[in-house]
Design a protein that fits this description.
heterodimer, A: 250 residues, alpha/beta, 8-stranded mixed sheet, 8 strands, B: 249 residues, 9 helices, 20% strand
Chain lengths: 250, 249
């Protein structure tokens, strides 16, 4: 395994960005890729520093790309930069040119935790032609509904910067429509979803479970796990092996 | 340019190392590649930190790979690690696997370096000419015997014996670049620069004369200056202009 910290210019962001990439060494590419998204307050190195993802991925011949989303909720921000475009569209093109990464849908997976778990669902729902499967940890398709930010807090400011004064509700409605469309498309990504039973976002996770699990015939192969755990790296680290197993199953 | 810091495992060295890599963003495939070598007491980060190499390489759409060479003189050491095998046998393949946009062709593959790295770069051309077509040595320590015996401040006799073996065995050996120049096939194009106040100046003049006597198309230049980055920052830009003339890829 080689670990690469990459800096380059992003047209979408209008500034230099960083990303971390783990590549299986000694094998010829192109490799299957897991796009792995960090949570709010973290950065592109957090997954590598807090879990065994590099070791666990190489064992399976999987490359791992961790982008950096700052506090963008993986959206093209109303007041800020276009992180959704950067991560969903720009990075796969840019990195696909430089590194031996497969562009085939069956070789591409997206997962994340907390803000990144919501981001992973969003990427897969908005770009279902790009990802075969998605992993969402400790999050729902939104993370604010039962966790309303107090006025004047950092969290409130984050949501306003991303969604503007009317807040996230409209973005949510659009996403729900997309979920239905993807569910009926016959080519829905498979979804692995896990949340700790002591997690502050448990209610959000359960709402998402009701949504994705509600479709006739389970088009998302939706799989939900709830077990003792909180909103922390102990839980996320423990989830990794089972999540990789699910993502990579044929 | 994309700037990549790469942590990887080398089978040849038997240990994990770090390298710096610059990849041009304007190239889809077949990028010309410069392996750029640091000097004694430096590491893989030195060229990025002390010069504007990224800006110079970007102007030519030139990929740059900056590996770590320790104090090993890019040599398969008498007592130590196989730095030359790492550099010439393992690293090019490893980089091309990892970065598919790099050219595989000899005529697109170059080496350059300063001081100890100048020795390493010239050695790449003379002893691994199947891989490297053009090499540039700035202030190179080009005479291994002279470095090991006469230039006392670079290391102890025990150190030099670890690197090159007993001094009396250096002349005529694989590590002797004067002998290597006689034996090289295919021959590389060579660029040499040295400051006239450099303690390695004499070695560079002798290598220039040697290469010319052998009929090499060697480009040689010199100027006022000692063993320092202000000159290498300027001269690496000239060396890159020589490696990739005109507008670049």
């Amino acid at each position: 395994m080689a670990l690469i910290r990459l800096r380059a210019f992003s047209e979408a962001l209008g500034m230099a960005f960083q990303a971390a990439v783990a590549l299986p060494e000694g094998r010829k590419g192109p490799h299957p890729v897991l796009w792995l998204l960090h949570g709010a307050g973290e950065d592109y190195m957090s997954w590598f520093r807090n879990t065994g993802i590099e070791r666990l991925a190489v064992r399976r011949g999987l490359a791992v790309v961790c982008p950096d989303a700052q506090l963008s909720m993986y959206e093209d921000m109303r007041h800020g930069q276009r992180f959704f475009t950067h991560i969903a569209d720009e990075l796969p093109e840019l990195l696909g040119r430089m590194l031996p990464l497969s562009g085939a849908r069956e070789d591409n997976f997206v997962a994340g935790l907390s803000m990144g778990g919501t981001g992973a669902l969003k990427l897969a729902i908005r770009r279902p032609e790009k990802y075969a499967a998605v992993g969402c940890l400790s999050a729902g398709y939104n993370n604010y509904r039962f966790h309303e930010p107090q006025p004047g807090t950092m969290r409130e400011r984050r949501y306003r910067l991303v969604y503007g004064p009317e807040g996230p509700d409209r973005a949510d409605e659009a996403l729900l429509k997309e979920v239905e469309r993807v569910a009926e498309s016959g080519a829905a990504p498979r979804i692995y979803h896990a949340c700790g039973s002591e997690d502050m976002l448990l209610r959000n996770a359960r709402i998402a479970k009701e949504l994705f699990g509600s479709f006739e015939g389970n088009p998302f192969s939706y799989t939900y796990r709830e077990r003792p755990g909180r909103h922390n790296w102990d839980f996320w680290s423990d989830c990794v092996p089972e999540m990789l197993e699910f993502l990579l199953q044929k | 340019m994309a700037h990549l810091t790469v942590n990887f495992f080398s089978d040849t060295l038997g240990m994990a190392r770090e390298m710096e890599v610059l990849l041009p963003e304007g190239v889809k495939a077949g990028a010309k590649t410069l392996f750029l070598l640091h000097g004694m007491s430096d590491d893989q980060s030195a060229w990025m930190r002390q010069t504007s190499i990224e800006r110079y390489a970007a102007a030519k759409n030139l990929a740059v790979v900056m590996p770590f060479g320790g104090l090993g003189w890019y040599t398969d050491m008498h007592r130590g690690l196989d730095w030359f095998s790492f550099l010439t046998k393992e690293l090019p393949g490893l980089c091309r696997r990892m970065f598919p946009l790099l050219s595989l062709r000899r005529e697109d593959t170059f080496a350059a370096g300063l001081s100890m790295g100048g020795y390493g770069a010239l050695k790449c051309g003379l002893r691994a000419g199947d891989v490297f077509s053009r090499v540039a040595a700035l202030s190179g320590g080009l005479d291994a015997y002279d470095c090991a015996t006469n230039i006392g401040h670079l290391g102890s006799p025990a150190y030099w014996e670890d690197v090159f073996g007993p001094a009396e065995g250096i002349a005529g050996s694989f590590n002797d670049l004067f002998r290597a120049a006689e034996e090289a096939a295919p021959r590389p194009d060579v660029f040499l620069w040295c400051g006239t106040e450099d303690f390695l100046y004499e070695q560079n003049v002798r290598m220039r004369d040697h290469l010319r006597a052998l009929g090499y198309p060697a480009v040689y230049s010199e100027g006022p200056g000692d063993h320092s980055w202000v000159h290498w920052d300027r001269e690496i830009r000239r060396a890159i202009e020589w490696l990739v003339p005109g507008e670049g890829a």
